[in-house]
Amino acid sequence: MTEIFGIPVAVILGQLMLGLVNGSFYAMLSLGLAVIFGLMGVVNFAHGAFYALGAFAALLSLQHLGINYWAALALSPLLVGLLGILAERLFLRHIYRLEPLYGLLLTFGLALVIEGLLHQYFGSSGQSYPVPPALRGVFNLGFMILPIYRAWVILVSMIVCFSVWFIIERTRLGCTLRAATENAPLLQAFGVNVPLLVAVTYGGGIALAALAGVLSAPVILVSPQMGSSLVIVVFAVVVIGGMGSILGAIVSGLSLGVIEGFTKVIYPEASNMVVFLIMALVLIVRPAGLFGKE
Amino acid sequence: MRAANLFFVLLGVCALCAPLLGIYPVFMMKLLCFAMFACAYNLLMGFGGMLSFGHAAFFGASAYATAWLATARGWDAAPAILAGVAAAALVGLLVGLIAIRRRGIYFAMITLALAQLIFFVCLEAPFTGGENGLQGVPRGSLFGVLPLRSDIVLYYLVLAAFVVQYLFIRRVVHSPFGQVLKAIRDNEPRAISLGYDINRYRLLAFVLSATLAGFAGSLKTIVLSFATLSDVQQATSGEVILMTLLGGTGTFFGPVAGAAVVVTLQEYLSEIVGGWVTVIIGAVFVACVLTFRRGIVGTIAALRRGGH
Questions:
Q1: Max CA-CA distance within chain B?
Q2: Interface membership of A286 toward B (CB under 8 Å)
Q3: A162, A258, B152, B224: which has the fewest C-beta neighbours closer than 10 Å?
Q4: Is B104 within 8 Å of A100 (Cβ atoms)?
Q5: Distance CA A33, CA A38 (A)
Q6: Are B289 and A95 an interchain contact pair (Cβ–Cβ within 8 Å)?
Q7: What residue numbers bound the domain in which A57 lies?
């Protein structure tokens, strides 16, 4: 078997694949954060909590209602997205006039409430979600073994990310959205229902997080804490990529996932820290982030 | 102002008599340590206008440094605390140099991410005891004279440390440095146009706040005899923000009041409601941001101004 630096190539490729899977989640989550921030000026600390909620919605609907993976893929983001809209109407809309920092604090409180409730009802030990039968097994590519589910996650998140990019950059709805980001009062004067647009956008960003949650359920253990450390990594990804750019969020999410996977091969102890170290480096060289416009 | 003076005199008397009144001294010391932590944090957030989401890193770094020196190296309490404070200052300098490059929410996210980096260092480093942390830190004695094993002696020392730090922060805020810091908070472009090197002021405020947070962390380690991952984790950073916000951001006494409420809630509420504490803390957070942004002390001050 071929080896690089004494490590079998198949192991390296396997870790890179896993990195790409994680990178897909980073990309989907940072994309949602970027869209929400762009329109509302709120850094959504509750993103990780909604991601966990998405996974729990899939898990519980399977356990109690027998709803399968494919239905959960659509239902869970819808349900959690509606919950997001409710949260926006109840809490977030009161703080748009204030400094953006209050948005961060408010959503931090929301995250605590959601994660605390999940913890209270389902305990802290993780539960596993079965891989759907159609996606079990592996592709044998000759030089490496590729689990079908991982390939599926990467494929779906690519499609989702680029559809979101397409909607925002190339459709009429996206055009309205970008106009609201630029100048909301003017858009409202033209007769667009901006508060509705904002609520739906927040719901959409949350639905993206919930979708990432459902996708990740079969590859990780579903637990209340699954989002709380992830959201910090995603913040670092967003700082690296610069929050203004949709494509920047996707590219930096995927590449940081791969870098993290690679670190797991050569120096496993640092794999948790590498994203933060890269963030520090980027800030020293380019304070506005790699794709930032400031 | 006479009512306020009377209040502080009464509070001082209560604090001095607390051990005689049968209040558990270790609880009081924990409360004072967190009050010091919140006051240090308020120096940065309230008077410097910088919302750090990673202050547990400094609190925890010095807690770990003090615990390691006192256990593995057998250092006495005073030098171990001093070294812990120095460690917090150093970590504060490194984090500050990177974080002050950005403003507002980016500053918050960067401090959060760098604090998470320090959390993982504390988890992975060979001398920090991994998941268990460092347990059984000896209290020893102060300069070989005062036995710190006695809760009463240690209580009065912590109380003295708290008073010194509180007065020091007042002094800093009222100094020319503090005035410039507030000016930067209120109107950065104007401060720049007046010729102030604002990044130097911001960095100094950051390091000062980190150092004082470290002092609180070291003392906490000596009081409770351990340093664990909960000292450096994100939830602790969140708690200190809540204490400051709840008590009143940018007021001197606010963080103390906020710390008293939060620590008491955690201590006694957890016995009654168990795991609901996180949910309740989260709900208090949401309620504070939505309806109570002035905090306890800020609201009282506003009422008094309105009344006269």
A1: 60
A2: no
A3: B152
A4: yes
A5: 8
A6: yes
A7: 3-285
Taking an 8 Å cut-off on Cβ atoms, the answer to whether B289 and A272 are in contact is no
* Token pair listed for B305: 């101004």
- Cα–Cα dist B85/B243, whole Å: 22
Compute the radius of gyration of chain A from its Cα atoms: 19
Report yes or no on A42 lying in a domain: yes
- Hey, where are the domains in chain B? 22-233
Sign of CA dihedral A67, A69, A70, A76: positive
ipTM confidence score = 0.89
Spatial separation of the C-alpha atoms in residues A7 and A1, rounded to whole Å = 10
Burial code (b: 16+ CB inside 10 Å, e: under 16) for B118-130 equals: bbbbbbeeeebbe
* Cβ-Cβ contacts under 8 Å for B218 (sequence gap 6 or more): B62, B63, B65, B66, B80, B81, B84, B85, B88
Q: Residue A272: which of B108, B120, B289 has the nearest Cβ?
A: B120
Number of domains in chain A: 1
Per the CB < 8 Å rule, is A276 touching B113? yes
Q: Render pLDDT for B9-44 as a digit per residue (tens, 0 to 9).
A: 888 888 888 887 778 889 999 999 999 999 999 999
The CA distance from A16 to B201, in Å, is: 44
Beta carbons of A210 and A76 less than 8 angstroms apart = yes
Please write the tens of the pLDDT for every residue from B224-272: 999 999 999 999 999 999 999 999 999 999 999 999 999 998 888 878 8
Residue B87 · residue B267 · CB < 8 Å: no
Q: A31 φ, ψ to 5°?
A: -60, -50
Distances, alpha carbon B188 to alpha carbons A147, A266, B209, in Å: 54, 45, 20
Do you know the residue count of chain B? 308
